[in-house]
């Protein structure tokens, strides 16, 4: 097991809020954490930050887990629920009180609002300064209190970030934040720190929208005398136009990409390259990514989503896939996209035809379009171009071909000899005959090679389709 500088095994985590699907940005954050841990023999943990009871749903948690599974990101141990750990969070807040790094604040909502209104009237934005920070316990009233952190009022907090460099935050800009509300519930800021500490997280790799949180969270680590993790705040993903990613740019949820027919390996490769680089490497396997991935390679500028690049990489991954594994993933796509499942016979033919199907297909819908000759049943429905290709002359040649094919031994060499011979007899090159043959076999003029199709569907089916088209 590889160690980080502190000599501890690497532990990373992904901690989404279950308020919706797994966003593409969240998918990439999870992937970076997974790659970093897996490449160092460490652990990748998963925590669901479900403290917001109004917005958290079990459906959203299930969608997040499905998205991670589709991306192939396996986590270690059980999924941790932040909400279920609230007693432990409260215990730490009371420990901070005992250590003198936090205090009881009896200020009411009305008093805090009055303080802010008065500051606004003076034209200044003032942080709320609780009168209870240094109060004598003898003066404490008998009513509920919040626990506030005794934040340093002067000096600065320095975040040593692996991506952003040194980030300095002036302490006078941070207030004494509440760690435990007066109703006894912990705040998000406290919960995150306690969970990360208890889970042994050594590296916090997350979106740079959490950069200001890091300063506040670092104060809690210091208040408890705990080791601060290595920070790495990664830039968000932007759309192709350079603006923050939103619905208008297209799909936002990881599962939407599965339904669109992108293979998981291509998606992983693309997301790894989105904002991280290793020399000029564009196409690589997950094994290579684990070996190469580091925090130094993450850029500071937001990465832009580029569908052309995604499709290009997906095409390369489809072509490089093992045939049986690709068929398995194609079937998972059919289920996700609510498309009809393959029959046993179709599955067998798909596997047989996969070597030619997977060349130059960038997505599963493209691969299925090429495999149409396998999934159609006779009589083969034809598109307009296919109807055009089957003119009187072509139909005549197909009629003449069928008896020759009935006695042929079914190898590529024999079929080549028969087809090119028939074309030559009619004073044409094979190219001219290919269009009507494709029309008869696939119902399209664009399809895999005529020989590939004939060898996959076999002699009887080929002859039957040619006879249908010649009729």
What does this structure look like?
The protein folds into four domains: 1-74 and 235-320, Rossmann fold, CATH 3.40.50; 85-234, 3-Layer(aba) Sandwich (Rossmann fold); 321-373; 384-470, Arc Repressor Mutant, subunit A (Orthogonal Bundle), CATH 1.10.10. Helix 6 links the parallel strand 9 and strand 10. Strands 1-2-3 form a three-stranded parallel β-sheet. The radius of gyration is 31 Å and the shape is elongated. The chain is built from 20 helices and twelve strands. Helix 1 (24-38) crosses helix 9 (286-292), helix 16 packs antiparallel against helix 17 and helix 16 packs antiparallel against helix 20 (459-470). By secondary structure, it is mainly α. The longest helix has 15 residues, at 24-38.
**Assembly state of the chains shown:** single chain
Q: Which of globular, elongated, flat, extended, rod-shaped describes the shape?
A: elongated
Sheet with most strands: 3 strands, parallel
Summarize model confidence as the mean pLDDT: 94
Individual helix count: 20
What is the fourth-level CATH superfamily of the largest domain?
A: HUPs
Q: Estimate what percentage of residues fall within beta strands.
A: 5-15%
Helix content: 40-55%
Specify the CATH architecture of the largest domain: 3-Layer(aba) Sandwich
**CATH third-tier fold name of the largest domain:** Rossmann fold
Query: Would you count the extended β strands for me?
Result: 12
> Structural class of the secondary elements?
mainly alpha
Radius of gyration: 31 Å
Which parts are unreliable, with pLDDT below 50 for 5 consecutive residues or more?
Answer: none
């Amino acid at each position: 097991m590889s160690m980080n500088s502190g000599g501890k095994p690497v532990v990373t985590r992904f901690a989404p809020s279950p308020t919706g699907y797994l966003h593409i940005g969240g998918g990439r954050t999870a992937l970076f954490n997974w790659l970093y841990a897996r490449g160092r023999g460490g652990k990748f943990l998963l925590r669901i930050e479900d403290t917001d009871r109004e917005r958290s749903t079990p459906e959203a948690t299930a969608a997040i887990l499905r998205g991670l599974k589709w991306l192939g990101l396996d986590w270690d141990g059980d999924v941790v629920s932040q909400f279920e750990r609230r007693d432990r969070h409260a215990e730490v807040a009371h420990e901070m009180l005992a250590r003198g790094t936090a205090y009881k604040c009896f200020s009411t909502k009305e008093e805090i609002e009055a303080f802010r209104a008065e500051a606004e009237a003076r034209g200044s934005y003032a942080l709320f300064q609780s009168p209870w920070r240094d109060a004598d316990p003898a003066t404490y009233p008998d009513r509920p209190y919040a626990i506030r952190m005794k934040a340093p009022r002067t000096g600065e907090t320095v975040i040593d970030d692996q991506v952003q460099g040194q980030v300095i935050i002036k302490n006078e800009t941070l207030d004494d934040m509440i760690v435990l509300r007066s109703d006894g519930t912990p705040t998000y800021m406290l919960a995150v720190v306690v969970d990360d500490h208890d889970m042994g997280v050594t590296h916090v790799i997350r979106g740079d929208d959490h950069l200001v949180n890091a300063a506040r969270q670092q104060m809690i680590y210091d208040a408890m005398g705990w080791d601060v993790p290595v920070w790495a705040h990664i830039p968000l993903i932007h759309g192709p136009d350079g603006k923050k990613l939103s619905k208008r740019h297209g799909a936002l949820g990881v599962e939407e990409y599965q339904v669109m027919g992108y293979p998981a390996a291509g998606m992983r490769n693309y997301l790894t390259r989105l904002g991280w680089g290793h020399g000029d490497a564009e196409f690589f396997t997950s094994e290579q990514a684990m070996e190469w991935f580091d925090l130094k390679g993450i850029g500071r500028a937001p990465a832009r989503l580029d569908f052309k690049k995604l499709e290009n990489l997906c095409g390369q991954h489809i072509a490089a896939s093992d045939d049986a594994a690709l068929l398995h993933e194609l079937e998972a796509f059919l289920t996700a996209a609510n498309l009809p499942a393959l029959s046993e016979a179709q599955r067998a033919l798909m596997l047989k035809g996969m070597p030619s199907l997977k060349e130059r297909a960038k997505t599963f819908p493209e691969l299925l379009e090429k495999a149409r000759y396998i999934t159609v049943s006779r009589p083969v429905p034809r598109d307009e171009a296919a109807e055009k290709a089957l003119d009187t002359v072509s139909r005549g040649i197909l009629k003449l071909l069928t008896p020759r094919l009935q006695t042929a031994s079914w190898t590529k060499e024999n079929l080549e000899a028969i087809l090119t011979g028939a074309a030559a007899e009619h004073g044409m090159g094979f190219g001219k005959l290919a269009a009507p043959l494709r029309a008869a076999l696939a119902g399209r003029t664009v399809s895999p090679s005529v020989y590939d199709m004939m060898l996959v569907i076999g002699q009887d089916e080929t002859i039957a389709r040619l006879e249908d088209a010649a009729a």
